[in-house]
Design a protein that fits this description.
12 strands, Immunoglobulin-like, five-stranded mixed sheet, 19% strand
Length: 340
C-alpha cells in the first residue's frame, strides 16, 4: 500500500520528462519553426491565442489569491457573515466587456489571415500553379503550365507563391506541410485552393492529416524547395527523356508489358499509379522506404507488406506474375531513370 502512496513523488519527474520529450522531433515537421510566410502568420495566431489564454488564467488566479488572503478568517474573528453584494452593474459591465475585447483581439487577425491564405492565386502569373491529387496512399503533383507531372516529391522554387488546387481521387485526405503552413482537405469531386511559400532552400516533410485508411500514417511526401534557377533546371530535366542503357532494355520491355498500364515514364504522364519519370533521382520508394534495390524489390514483390491497402498489385510470389530475373531486370531499368 505504501508503495502506491509514494508514487506521487514521481509526478514532478514525469512532468520534467514530458517537457524534455516535447522538444524532440524533426524540425521540418514542426509548426513552431516556420519556414514560410503562411506558417509564420499561423504561428503568430497560435502565440496570440496562447497569450490571451495565459493572461486570463493569470488574472483569474491573482484575483483568487487576493480574495483568499484578503478575506480569510483571522484568529479572533467572530462567526460573522460578510456584507452581501448583489447586482453590481460595474462588475457586470467589466466581466462582459473585457471578454468581448479579448475575442475581438483574437478574431480580427484570425479572419484576416484565414482569408489571406485561402486567396485564389490561380490567375496570378507570378505564382507556380500545382494541382495536387491525393490517392490511397500516395500523392500526385501536376504543373499544368509547365507541362510536367510527378509523384511523392513536390519541387517548388523559393520566394514564389505556390497556388494549389487540391482534390482527391478516392476518399477524403488532407494535404499538410507543417513547416510551410496548415493543412487543407482534399475531397473527391471538389477542389480546394490555397497557397504556400518557402523562403529557404531545404527539404520539408509533408503528411496526410486526415484518417484515410489502413496506411494513412504512411502517406508521406517531400517538398523540395530550390532557388529559381535550380527549379528551372529541374523542369528542363523532367522534360528530357531518359536514356535507357543497353543492359536495361530487357527490364524496359518487362516494364512496358506489365507496368505501363498504371505508371507513366514521361514528363506529363498520368495514370492509376505514380509517374515514375526520374524515379532513380528520388530519395525514397513509395514515399517511405530508402531508395535502394532491396527496397524496390520489396515494393514490387509484396507492396501490401509495406503499405497495407495499397492498390499496387504484387508481382512476386504472392502475385506469381514475374520471375526473379524479370524483377531484377525491371529494377535495373528503374535505376536508369535518372534526371540528367
Amino acid at each position: 500500500m505504501n508503495r502506491w502512496q509514494n508514487l506521487w513523488r514521481f509526478i514532478p519527474l514525469f512532468g520534467l520528462m514530458m517537457m524534455l520529450l516535447a522538444g524532440c522531433g524533426d524540425k521540418t515537421i514542426s509548426t513552431l519553426q516556420p519556414r514560410g510566410p503562411v506558417a509564420r502568420d499561423q504561428l503568430f495566431l497560435m502565440k496570440l491565442s496562447f497569450g490571451i489564454m495565459l493572461l486570463v488564467v493569470v488574472v483569474v488566479f491573482l484575483i483568487y489569491l487576493y480574495v483568499l488572503v484578503r478575506f480569510r478568517k483571522k484568529k479572533g474573528d467572530k462567526d460573522i457573515v460578510p456584507k452581501q453584494v448583489e447586482g453590481s452593474h460595474t462588475l457586470e459591465i467589466i466581466w462582459t466587456v473585457i471578454p468581448i475585447i479579448l475575442l475581438l483581439v483574437l478574431a480580427v487577425p484570425t479572419v484576416q489571415y484565414t482569408f489571406k491564405v485561402l486567396e485564389d492565386h490561380r490567375q496570378n502569373k507570378d505564382a507556380i500553379h500545382v494541382k495536387v491529387t491525393a490517392h490511397a496512399f500516395w500523392w500526385q503533383f501536376e504543373y499544368p503550365e509547365l507541362g510536367i507531372a510527378t509523384a511523392q516529391d513536390l519541387v517548388i522554387p523559393t520566394g514564389k507563391k505556390i497556388a494549389f488546387e487540391l482534390t482527391s481521387a478516392d476518399v477524403k485526405h488532407s494535404f499538410w506541410v507543417p513547416s510551410l503552413g496548415g493543412k487543407m482537405d482534399t475531397n473527391p469531386g471538389l477542389t480546394n485552393v490555397y497557397y504556400l511559400q518557402a523562403d529557404e532552400v531545404d527539404t520539408f516533410k509533408g503528411k496526410c492529416a486526415e484518417l484515410c485508411g489502413a496506411s494513412h500514417s504512411l502517406m508521406d511526401f517531400k517538398v523540395k524547395s530550390m532557388d529559381p534557377a535550380a527549379f528551372d533546371q529541374w523542369v528542363a530535366k523532367m522534360k528530357t527523356p531518359a536514356v535507357v542503357p543497353a543492359d536495361a532494355k530487357a527490364g524496359e520491355q518487362v516494364f512496358k508489358d506489365n507496368c505501363l498500364s498504371c505508371h507513366a515514364v514521361n514528363a506529363q504522364g498520368l495514370g492509376a499509379g505514380p509517374n515514375l519519370n526520374g524515379l532513380a533521382s528520388r530519395e525514397l520508394i513509395a514515399g517511405i522506404l530508402p531508395h535502394n534495390d532491396d527496397s524496390l524489390k520489396k515494393w514490387i514483390t509484396n507492396p501490401q507488406s509495406v503499405k497495407p491497402g495499397t492498390q499496387m498489385p504484387a508481382f512476386g510470389p504472392t502475385g506469381a506474375k514475374l520471375q526473379d530475373q524479370q524483377i531484377n531486370d525491371v529494377i535495373k531499368y528503374l535505376d536508369s531513370l535518372q534526371l540528367k
